[in-house]
Amino acid sequence: MAKISCSNLKKSYGSVEIVRDFNLEVDDHEFVVFLGPSGCGKSTILRMIAGLEDISGGTVAIGGAVVNDLLPRDRNVAMVFQNYALYPHMSVFDNIAFGLRRMKVSTAEIDRRVQDVSAILGLGPYLLRHPTQLSGGQQQRVAIARAMIKTPQVFLFDEPLSNLDAKLRNHMRVEIARLHKRLETTTIYVTHDQLEAMTLGDRIVLLNGGVIEQVGTPAEIYERPRTLFVAGFIGTPNMNLISVTISDGGDRWRATSGALSFAFVRERFDLKDGQKAVLGVRPSNFVEAAPSATDNVVEGTVDLVEYMGDAALLDVAPRSGSSDARQIAVLVEAHRSPRPGAAIRLTFDEGDVHLFDERTGLSLLKPRSN
Amino acid sequence: MNRVRPAIWIARVILGLAAAMAIVPVLWTFLNAFKNRVDIVTPAPVFIFTPTLDNFIYVLGRESVLQGLINSVIVSGASVLIGALFGLPTAYAVARHPSRLTGEIQFFVLSLRFLPPVAVAIPLMVIWLDAGLYDTQLSLITTYSLLTISTTVWLGIPAFQRVPKEVEEAATVDGYGPYAVFFKVALPIASRSLIGALAFSFVLVWNEFLIALMLTTSDAKTLPIVASELTQLGRDVPWGILNASVILLSLPPLLFIGVLSGFLNSIVKKTNG
């Protein structure tokens, strides 16, 4: 087991910078997820840690030792690839044992360890088959077994589930979580799927354009997104984002956008009079407003109802004077869903509101004072 | 339905004719190889005759034929081996490390085949004469190696490019160095296409006529040259002997491809059944 630390890590191809000044400490036993849209550099960082990609600047240290110039074999890492990358000309057994063979482990020992690992992953009946005879889920399990058998200090997963269908993906996600609980090997897991990131990660590193947007536990990232990008990226359905102008309303801050007007207690946000900001409310944070409520009320008509089983997503057109008012998405329990065309009055808890500076994209929430 | 039927019959007739065009000459050659001269030159084709092995005995009995066969096997075998030895690693390197020059390298390798063989053969003849190696197996092997290396490189590059890069990376993470990755991963995975490339270069060299004609006079003559000389045996064209030599000449490449495809099938079986 080992810590991983990346300091000032850089990667560039010619003049194109893929990763800029990446700094991260991964603790022993920790499960860290790199999350971000495609092209954000997450796989590149993983491959630099694995030793498959040259490092243009900065250092990677595993277990306290800088590994920049070490070959993958000397880094004591194991990797699971997106397309499994099994050896097509070898049986499942040989696929799993291939790494041990190089280390001159005795045949009996190889046998024992392959049996152990394949028992954990339920691969026992398939050891003599070839990869092409296995389903996608089984192939990915072989790839995980191949990584596990070397008892590495670090597990690296590069979008391991994105080639599987949705049902199998859920299943394998649970298996990976269970495996980590059992082995406690330090793990870095790359994905573009926020559900995988939220459910698996002790911490999430959210990347965009080669730069870290936010590092935090899944709850921190969901509840206190540091930037507008994080707010928009995390959460399904997407957060409603409304451009507003801030004004000083005496004891409260006011935020207005056309006919919509909101007000918040002064303590939560760090605002200036006249500031341009983006207000964010998650679709699930809307509730029906009491008839007496006046503040933070959105009135509108239901345009569209998307039935999703236990919930329904409403597309609400706010009643406002200006034409630029955007549709607002609202998540309600399916059995309480109004019909399309119905008038609706919505409100939300002040504590669920996010505000971001329109220019910098940074959150305007005051740091939590403990 | 009624309109479909004639269409099917027409298609079958065309198919049958095409098949006959391909098979009948081979069959006819095969039959004639076992006929006496009398049976061959009759105006009406004879299908029922007393088979004879005289033609084969004559062909195989000639020392020049046996020597030609030995020369052909050694020269073709050695040049294919050299082609594989140098061509496969070259193809792998070009496929795995693409650079500005990748396209030029591929084109240059192919361009060796653009020149008419005569244009190549005459300078080569002078070179080997000056080197004192004219009419030797060594000179033929060296010359043919140019052909086999370029063919192997040309066909090997796409074969190696089709090997998924991640599989090689997995082997790297599994601790293997570049040579082990080449021999234990890339080569076996690409083997199916590579065997095709080697078979192609073998047939190319086995059937080569013009360069062999210009570079040999007696000692190093290959089978195609020897076979062509059989036509000059006299005024009466020895049809039976010619047919027998055609059959004999066709057998080694057929055997070679048979062995290769058997080898291929065993690999396919291993991965699919």
Structure report:
The complex is a heterodimer of chains A (370) and B (273). Chain A has 2 domains: 228 residues, 3-Layer(aba) Sandwich (Rossmann fold); 121 residues, OB fold (Dihydrolipoamide Acetyltransferase, E2P) (Beta Barrel), CATH 2.40.50.140. Chain A has 8 helices and 20 strands. Chain A starts with a strand and ends in a 13-residue tail after the last strand. The longest helix of chain B has 34 residues. Chain B is globular and about 70 Å long. The chains are: A alpha+beta (370), B mainly alpha (273).
Write the layout of secondary structure elements.
The complex is a heterodimer of chains A (370) and B (273).
Chain A: E1 4-13, E2 16-26, E3 31-35, H1 42-50, E4 57-62, E5 65-66, E6 77-80, H2 92-102, H3 107-120, H4 136-148, E7 154-158, H5 166-183, E8 186-191, H6 194-200, E9 203-208, E10 211-216, H7 218-223, H8 228-233, E11 240-249, E12 252-257, E13 260-265, E14 276-281, E15 286-288, E16 298-307, E17 311-318, E18 328-333, E19 343-348, E20 354-357
Parallel strand pairs in A: 3-8, 3-9, 6-7, 7-8
Antiparallel strand pairs in A: 1-2, 1-4, 4-5, 9-10, 11-12, 11-14, 12-13, 14-20, 15-19, 16-17, 16-19, 17-18
Helix pairs in contact in A: 2-3, 2-4
Chain B: H1 4-33, H2 37-41, H3 54-61, H4 63-96, H5 102-111, H6 117-131, H7 137-161, H8 165-173, H9 178-206, H10 210-215, H11 223-229, H12 239-272
